[in-house]
Amino acid sequence: MSSSADGTAGNAAGHGRTLWLDCQAGVAGDMLVAALIDAAEDSEAAERAVRAALAALPVEGFSLEVGRVPKAGISCLDFNVVLDEAHENHDHDMAYLHGHEHACEGGHGHIHGREGGCGHDHCDGHRHGGHHHHAGHAHDHAHGHAHDHAGDGAHDHAHRNLADILAIIEAAPLTPGAAAFARRAFGILAEAEAEAHGLPVEQVHFHEVGAVDSIADIVAVAVLVDLIGIERAIVPVLVEGRGTVRCQHGVMPVPVPATVGVCRAHGLPLAPCEVEGELVTPTGAALVAALNPEFVLPERYVVASVGLGAGKRAYERPSILRAMLIEPLSGPAAPSPRGHRGAEGEDTLAEPLPSSRPAPLSSETQPPTTVCKLECDLDDMTPEQMAYAAERLSEAGAREVHWVPVVAKKGRPAYELQVLCEPQEAVAIEAVVFRETSTLGIRRCIMDRTVLPRRLEVRHTAFGPISVKIAMLPDGTERATPEYEDCAAAARAAGVSLATVMGAALG
Ligand SMILES: O=C([S-])c1cc(C(=O)S)c[n+]([C@@H]2O[C@H](COP(=O)(O)O)[C@@H](O)[C@H]2O)c1
Ligand code: NI
């Protein structure tokens, strides 16, 4: 929306940006692309970057239209992937909403029978980029689908699997960050689809998402997240409609199974509203999950820029996704130093997003006075699985993860998993516990903490600057503790002992 002097999009200040996504009218892939282009510091440069990335994809058959449209009188940005007739998708069509059968007029139905898979019952009535087609189908049969086509024209409608999609990302000249984000989003979708259809992830054939426009949406968002430098995302709620929607599977309840799957697996909060129809699409939900969002806004923040992304569907609630780049000022969600956290699934999420979670309790200057403790006992997990679960929990925002040896029921040696997290993170952390451990239940309690006031000082030593945490004790005295990571790095660099550097920092 605004331009920086150097013409770069986004992150001209060179630091990670905080995104607040206001999903009061839901979220879909195209809405998110538009909102992020609009919110970038230099929207024109952001649009150019998206166009360049998508033009370089090894995928054919589409062009892009980006322009402003009014939504309830508010000027929004519209991002439209216009498909060639031969590459049309079926499901971004108004005619598919609300289960209206008239979409079949002049079109055709066809069943995709797949052993062990789902049957896709398509109903054609396509409208893309203002064109309305009733073409027949000449499907890409690369994945062994048995199709029963009633159409008679030419229509390429690829059903790609995760490996196909990952190969497209691999072949595209994306930055490592953008490629990692795209892989993460597709991995999240694949897991939800697999769950919905009862298939292993590798056997899932993306239907709608295999289509060109969905690939374009996801890659475009990946490019923009990387370009803008979004390190932290806050998405308090995904507002969803009600009723049913018609998609390739037929008439589905809203939220559709894949959206439910993504939201369940990643603890994304959904809230129903009065709108009849689908506001949150699986792709939209997966993109939000890939941002690994927090759910609580800072107590105070300033707005650096705003982007409004237009949805295609017309509902009584204007279809607008609002993306704000904000600067948190203080409060529980104020920025803090942090490590990395990934999202869901090692194989699909190669490089984690920089964490937006708070620092471990020990390195904070404004520690929380309440924490949530989650516990469960496990006697059937391997050490590898336990270590992996602990890693995933830390990446998901857990402040502490402990495996405590216990003797459990029936005299069995076992381990108690103890996880400390912020209360508002508990639902998301529990989702990771259920996914990565064999537990059937989790005990949960909110605990008060007594914390010493503390501050961080940087001390300049012969070995370089070292952060020192100073805690104030109840008797008024102070206790200084050099930050381990700083000391360890300085000790390694100088080839001296850790104790020498720590002594220098305290001296
Ligand atoms: O995997 C995808 S994309 C998908 C799964 C399901 C299931 O519930 S299973 C449903 N749909 C519907 O397709 C259209 C388009 O979705 P996009 O995420 O590609 O925008 C939409 O109506 C979905 O509900 C898609
Ligand atoms: Ni599906």
UniProtKB/TrEMBL annotation:
<comment type="similarity">
    <text>Belongs to the LarC family.</text>
</comment>
<feature type="compositionally biased region" description="Basic and acidic residues">
    <location>
        <begin position="137"/>
        <end position="156"/>
    </location>
</feature>
<feature type="compositionally biased region" description="Low complexity">
    <location>
        <begin position="350"/>
        <end position="364"/>
    </location>
</feature>
<dbReference type="GO" id="GO:0016829">
    <property type="term" value="F:lyase activity"/>
</dbReference>
<protein>
    <recommendedName>
        <fullName>Pyridinium-3,5-bisthiocarboxylic acid mononucleotide nickel insertion protein</fullName>
        <ecNumber>4.99.1.12</ecNumber>
    </recommendedName>
</protein>
<comment type="function">
    <text>Involved in the biosynthesis of a nickel-pincer cofactor ((SCS)Ni(II) pincer complex). Binds Ni(2+), and functions in nickel delivery to pyridinium-3,5-bisthiocarboxylic acid mononucleotide (P2TMN), to form the mature cofactor. Is thus probably required for the activation of nickel-pincer cofactor-dependent enzymes.</text>
</comment>
<feature type="region of interest" description="Disordered">
    <location>
        <begin position="127"/>
        <end position="156"/>
    </location>
</feature>
<dbReference type="GO" id="GO:0051604">
    <property type="term" value="P:protein maturation"/>
</dbReference>
<dbReference type="GO" id="GO:0016151">
    <property type="term" value="F:nickel cation binding"/>
</dbReference>
<feature type="region of interest" description="Disordered">
    <location>
        <begin position="331"/>
        <end position="369"/>
    </location>
</feature>
<keyword id="KW-0456">Lyase</keyword>
<dbReference type="InterPro" id="IPR002822">
    <property type="entry name" value="Ni_insertion"/>
</dbReference>
<keyword id="KW-0533">Nickel</keyword>
<dbReference type="Pfam" id="PF01969">
    <property type="entry name" value="Ni_insertion"/>
</dbReference>
